[in-house]
Amino acid sequence: MASLAAPKNKKKPRPSFKAPPPPPPSSLVQEDESVGEMMTNMTFPHEVQNPLPGMRKKTSRPSVVTAPTNVKKHIHVEWDADTGTFKGLPDVWQSMVPQGASLDETSTANMGDHVKPAQPTPKNSSSSSSSSSSSSSSSSSSSSAGETKTTISAPFNVQHKCHVGVDPHSSTGFKGLPAQWKTLLQASGISREEVGQNPQEVLDVLQFHMEGPPPKMPSRQSLSRNVQAAVNIIQDIDPSKVFRRHKKLGEGASGVVWSATEIKTKKQCAVKITDLSDLTNLKNEIAMQTLSSHPNVVQYMGAYAWQDKLWIVMELLQGGSLTEVLGRHIEWNESMIAYVCRESLMALAYLHRQHRLHRDIKSDNILVNMEGVVKIADFGFAINLTEEQDKRRSVVGTPYWMAPELIRGLEYDAKVDVWSMGITALEMADGEPPLIREPPLRALLLITIQGPPQLEQPDRWSSQFRHYLARSFDINPEKRASAEQLLMHPFIRDACTKEEFAIFCKKQLKKMRR
Fold first, then answer.
1. Of 148, 152, 179, 211, which has the fewest CB atoms closer than 10 Å, so is most exposed?
2. How many CB atoms sit inside 10 A of residue 358's CB?
3. Is 104 a catalytic residue?
């Protein structure tokens, strides 16, 4: 994300891949001759002067670098942009990269010492530490003898690309805005006053729009490799010895979710406990969530298989699901609806750029906390499109939020999530989704034969909100707006602040939990 007047970030150190040094020059060649031959392919027309009397002068000759012989490739590391992983990384370096970020590792077991890469080890701390830290370290030296201290090296290859700030006197309301962003902003209809009131939000939607084409759609084979690399289920530890369960948060077809605490670290988390009988689908759920790292997606923390149960550990959001702050008796204003839509759409835009579909967007699967954070959860129905199958036909999801093309069994894509997000916006406006009082089967029929869903009291809401919903509910998926397009909609510009939404959530949750 582009940040507003953010401090200059320095790149973190990373392992460097340095080729082994060339072999020393042959002892049969004088040092000055070997250097000349390695540095140039030119000939020397003059004679080389013999500095010692009585010795025969050398005659001039062209210097030539011979072709290499007995070449053997030991290590070749490359970055695969399609899969987002390293290929050929030495096995001794695997601990230096995140889990799942390396495929096809290179074994170093049979390599000679002259080419075998060393195991990464912490470097000693720099002696330029402050006097206070020096005295502290000296006082505890007896207890930490033999231990090496880690240090962060100086940044390298730093480039300052862009620094944007607010400037109420400029034509756009910003200073330092890239030229393409400036052109887009001037054509967007966003006023300078709106920029001044919501500068970071404006930068966020601009960046989403300017990120360019999505990454290449993966092949079925590369997706399978990514899924396998992303799933790491611990099978030799009893999770009840690692986590202490507290309160049941919810229960669904796929399992029961509990609030919990990691005993060792005291860190709070959520634990989903389900049967191991459907392990294939559970692995897909874990992989889709693990590969979808985004600020508006609930973070996956690990999985444990024990006896006949699978424990999936995730980030805990104390506010619970969005459903808890919805209802006929709870009044939402447009700015709060716009805020939840914006935060959810940012997650969906990210997923869709990665060619992933959530397929079960609804208020139950949108979580909030007391600080106003909004994140989507539950990847049980999520799927990744591939080159071989860039559309889907399977009918999955929750009936009242399903798009018509999905119910009909037609081919569909990411636009089904946009429809479901529109239904969730109606939930916030009317207190419940359309047709919720109908039996599920009749509701599915009505979704396919009726026109787009409507607000119960359209006159109560602005034309911007009504148009936003119309763009979400186009019966023709090709004409329906994408998540990225909706992020640029004028309705989203009216979103409240994170702090304002936090106050609203605290107030409603306090009432609900009395």
1. 179
2. 29
3. no
Helices in 431-513 by DSSP H: which ranges? Answer: 440-449, 463-472, 483-487, 490-493, 498-512
**Per-residue pLDDT, 43:** 44
Residue 217 has a pLDDT of 85
- Could you give the angle at which helices 463-472 and 334-353 cross, rounded to 10 degrees? 30
CB 298 within 8 A of CB 376: yes
Q: Which of 80, 113, 308, 360 is catalytic?
A: 360
* Residue 429 · residue 420 · CB < 8 Å: no
Those residues whose C-beta lies under 8 Å from the C-beta of residue 47, and which sit 6 or more positions away, are 57, 58, 59, 60
What is the DSSP code (8-state) at residue 218? P
Confidence (pLDDT) at 203:
78
The C-alpha atoms of residue 470 and residue 331 are separated, in whole angstroms, by 22
Buried b (16+ CB within 10 A) or exposed e, 231-248: bebeeeeebeebbeeeee
- DSSP type of residue 323: G
Q: What does the pLDDT read at residue 206? A: 77
Question: Three-class SS of residue 217?
Answer: coil
Three-state SS for 252? strand
Which residues does residue 479 pair with via DSSP β-bridges, in sequence order?
A: none
3-state secondary structure of 26: coil
Using the 8-state DSSP alphabet, how is residue 442 labeled?
Answer: H
Closest to 385 measured CA to CA, from 213, 219, 212? 219
Six-digit token string for 255: 């399992």
Amino acid at 384: N
Q: From the CB of residue 36, how many other CB atoms can be counted at a distance below 10 Å?
A: 15
Asked if residues 84 and 77 have their Cβ atoms less than 8 Å apart, the reply is no
Q: What is the pTM of this model?
A: 0.62
Q: What is the pLDDT of residue 62?
A: 60
Tokens of 126: 């720099």
Buried b or exposed e, range 85-106, using 16+ CB within 10 angstroms: bbebbbebbeeeeeebbbbebb
